[in-house]
Amino acid sequence: MNYYHDSKMEQIFEGLKQPKTIEDIQLSESFIKDLILKILTSFGTVNTSTIYDITSIHWDILEQCLGKLEKEGLCAPVSGSFLFSSVQYSISKKGREKSKGISEENPYIGVAPVSYENYYKIMGAQLKGRYPINIPKEVVESTFSDVVGVENAKESLIESCIIGKGIFIYGPPGTGKTFLTAKMSDLLPPVIIPKFLEFGGKIIQIYDPDFHKKCPEQPEDPRWVKIHAPFVLTGSELNLNKLETNYNATKGVYETSPIIKANGGILLIDDLGRQRDDHDLILNRLIVPMENKKDVIYVRGIPVTVHCDFIPAFSTNLDISIMDEAHLRRAPLHVFLRNPPIADVAEVFKINLDYLSEDYDDEVLEKFKNIYCDCDDGGEGLNPTFAHARDVAQICQAVRINQEKERVDCNVLEDALQKHVLIVLQRMNIDISQITRKTRSFRIKTSQIEEAKHAIRNFGASKLSHESEAVIIDIDDNITPVQLAEYLHSSGIEVDRIDMIAESEKEIKRTIFNV
Fold first, then answer.
1. Mean pLDDT per 10-residue interval, the chain, length 515 residues
2. C-beta of residue 91 within 8 angstroms of C-beta of residue 39
3. Three-class DSSP labels, 206-270
4. Which of 113, 153, 174, 480 has the greatest number of beta carbons closer than 10 A?
5. According to DSSP H, which parts of 75-210 are helical?
6. Quick one: which H or E segment has residue 298?
């Protein structure tokens, strides 16, 4: 037994033996016969082994139902031996006519679903008492083996998974918000879910291979699947309709929402505030599922309660005030990711080059670090991000191959930097995320000129110069003189006076075209 397959999981496996009778499978005989008839109609003539592969229904049940369909004149065996698995059945004219009406009502062909009662029982047994979780040290180490730095963030993510409480992660673009949050599901134990669920003769799809990754060990009943704790990511494409379970008439199934697909794992609402629908409406839609760990879907107008015991995660590069108190209570843990230290970004750059099996000169790592070093120390003073490290390493590979070089040298790196749009914009002092704002120029009178220059550069000034008794800066218009004064004071710098001397529009297109 281990963390990913403990005694509780083994008990559930024992209860998921493949049913051999109609009573045990908990589906009506007519439902099973209709499913078989639709397969016969689709193929015309088909082996019983193919029917088994499609439906995952035990041989004994298939033999019983096919025998009854044969007696009703809906199909007939046309070849095979004494082994039932090798027999071929063909649809009759009567069977084809009956199947047409069945398909119009319910076109679904696939794995036999699990009954709603059995689903609710098995899921309830798994999720009851799931938290708090005692996550083994080796699981934590394995999960974060490729994560550099951000120790406080790791702790918050671990603690969120231990108690099953939501987390809000925010900070500038490129600081690793999505990358880090995606690690959370590896900290959680797996769950067993049905592939499909039957309710009132209708089919609800639970298993989605796009989000659900199978575990090596699987239950005997192939209608169930053991999956790693899911990580379901939605971003700016999310709208209210996508949070509902919708009927797919072509497949004949109700396709569940991200809320239900995330059951037992993590649901990340990425880029919060950039969705087409108002983010407050989306957050309000999530409150009840987050609170009750269950959601309600409607099948032919009938409400059906399903499990959705997920850990909510929200990420944004906007201000924390995008979520109000009612929403933050459902995600009480938080992580604020600042621009990372230069050494950490350089380490991630090296890791990515190594991962790509690229040879490189030692000077390449030093040159990469230098673009983020302070201007006073001979660097370029760009804002370091983990996204730069990954992207530039990949562009370096492309440039190196294109130039037919055997290793990455400083010239390859410089070409790669000049091809990375965000680095080029930074070199031009353009912050594309702030382009709709204005730039204000301030004169800050102080006797501590050099100290003030160093502090203000770290505060985000786009341009900086000085006079005999003052520092002149350009900075975004969302920064007030009071904020400047408070920041400088907290940095141990005495300020005599701050005056705004100019205000101008940012013009990204003109700047680019003139370069």
1. 82 91 92 94 92 94 94 90 84 92 90 93 89 93 89 92 92 85 94 94 92 94 95 88 88 92 93 82 88 89 91 84 79 86 92 94 92 85 87 95 94 94 83 62 88 80 81 79 83 87 60 42
2. no
3. CCCCCCCCECCCCCCCCCEEEECCCEEEECCCCCHHHHCCEEECCCCEEECCHHHHCCCCEEEEC
4. 113
5. 93-105, 116-127, 137-143, 151-163, 177-181
6. strand 294-299
Identify any residues that bridge with 246 across adjacent strands, giving them in sequence order: 255
The model carries a pTM of 0.76
Look up residue 408 and give its DSSP letter.
B
Residue-wise DSSP of 38-97: HHHHHHSEEEHHHHHHHH---HHHHHHHHHHHHHTTSEEEEE--SSGGG-EEEE-HHHHH
Cβ–Cβ contacts within 10 Å for residue 468, how many? 5
Exposure b/e, 68-78, CB count within 10 A at least 16 = b: ebeeeebbeee
Q: Which residue from 340, 350, 315 is spatially nearest to 151, judged by alpha carbons?
A: 340
pLDDT of 189 reads 94
- DSSP β-ladder status, 167-170 and 333-336: parallel
Separation between Cα atoms, residue 347 and residue 338, nearest integer Å:
17
For the stretch 74-129, pLDDT in tens is: 999 988 777 888 899 999 999 999 999 898 888 999 999 999 999 999 999 898 88
Which residues does residue 193 pair with via DSSP β-bridges, in sequence order?
Answer: 225
Q: What is the DSSP pairing of strand 246-248 with strand 202-205?
A: unpaired
Separation between Cα atoms, residue 154 and residue 140, nearest integer Å: 9
Angle, in degrees to the nearest 10, between helices 7-14 and 116-127: 170
Structure tokens at 84: 């039932």
**Measured distance CA(213)–CA(183) in Å, rounded:** 14
3-state secondary structure of 199: strand
